[in-house]
Design a protein that fits this description.
The structure is a single chain. The chain has one helix and eight strands, in the order H-E-E-E-E-E-E-E-E. With about 120 residues, the protein is mostly beta strands. It has a single domain, classed as Immunoglobulin-like (Sandwich), CATH 2.60.40. Strand 2 and strand 3 form a beta hairpin. The chain is elongated and about 45 Å long.
Length: about 120
């Protein structure tokens, strides 16, 4: 009888242990951590943009004036949980522009805009 009462408890412990995330599986959520960030900007038109602004390695912002498209910028940066990075553009006249942010070669944010200026951000989780 004692064994029957202990069986559900043992089963629950085994189930909980099996559902726990194993170290090394999935993404590394420990912070601070060093990541590779790639900013990509492209357009369906051949016009250059007036400017592209992105967060740089030191936490400031860098503006590329009159960049040719497609535009790609790679940086290595140490980030903390909830840090935010941004990517934006200004075009004259308005055109279709695709913005992408990649972290460690994985697209984490991608958006297509049809206005003369816009921006997007990504928050590290």
């Amino acid at each position: 009888m004692k064994l029957l009462k202990a069986s559900p408890l043992i089963g629950l412990i085994i189930l909980l242990a099996a559902s726990c995330k194993k170290p090394g599986s999935g993404t590394d959520n420990t912070y601070p951590k060093q990541v590779s960030i790639t900013y990509r900007v492209s357009s369906t038109t051949t016009n250059n943009l007036v400017s592209i602004t992105y967060d740089n390695e030191t936490g400031g912002q860098t503006t590329a004036d009159n960049p040719a498209l497609p535009f790609t910028k790679n940086i290595i940066k140490t980030v903390n949980k909830y840090n935010i990075i941004t990517l934006g553009y200004f075009a004259n006249p308005a055109q279709t522009v695709k913005l992408e942010i990649l972290v460690n070669n994985q697209v984490v944010k991608s958006q297509v805009y049809t206005s003369s200026n816009s921006s997007m951000s990504y928050t590290f989780q």
